[in-house]
Write a structure and sequence with these properties.
- With about 120 residues, this protein is an alpha+beta fold.
- The chain has one domain: Translation Initiation Factor IF3.
- Helices cover about 30% and strands about 25% of the residues.
- It is built from 4 helices and 8 strands.
- It has a 4-stranded mixed sheet.
- A hairpin with a 4-residue loop joins strand 7 and strand 8.
- The radius of gyration is 16 Å and the shape is globular.
């Protein structure tokens, strides 16, 4: 009996913080091209997201890599006392789900929940 499914990796904020922005983008693309769904504990910066999308667009192939689907909780402004002093209302990135565009489809997203359909059929 063969088990069909997908692999979902939950990636800690600590692991991503040890990578440069270029390493993060490369890591995400390599994992998603391999068919994995990634859940990032801490989302990417706007610059990293733009770089990921740009790099992904150059790799899309007909009958090959279909690109990525990416969904994050809406960003929040850090209004804590320390956040105000140190970062002057810096945006806090939140959990992000990334996967192959032909397998992951966002059904609904709001401030506190992302609902997605993950298909094992390509």
């Amino acid at each position: 009996m063969s088990v069909q499914g997908f692999q979902m990796d939950l990636v800690s904020e600590h692991r991503l913080s040890e990578m440069t922005p270029v390493e993060k983008v490369r890591f995400i693309i390599d994992e998603v091209k391999g068919g994995k769904i990634l859940v990032l504990e801490k989302g990417l910066s706007p610059e990293e997201e733009a770089s990921l999308i740009e790099m992904t667009m150059t790799l899309i192939e007909p009958d090959g890599f279909s690109g990525i689907e990416m969904e994050s909780y809406p960003t929040e402004v850090d209004t804590s006392f320390i956040g105000k002093i140190l970062k002057k209302n810096a945006l806090k990135s939140r959990l992000t789900v990334i996967g192959p565009a032909d397998q992951l489809k966002t059904l609904r997203r709001d401030r506190n929940m992302i609902s997605a359909l993950i298909s094992t059929n390509k």
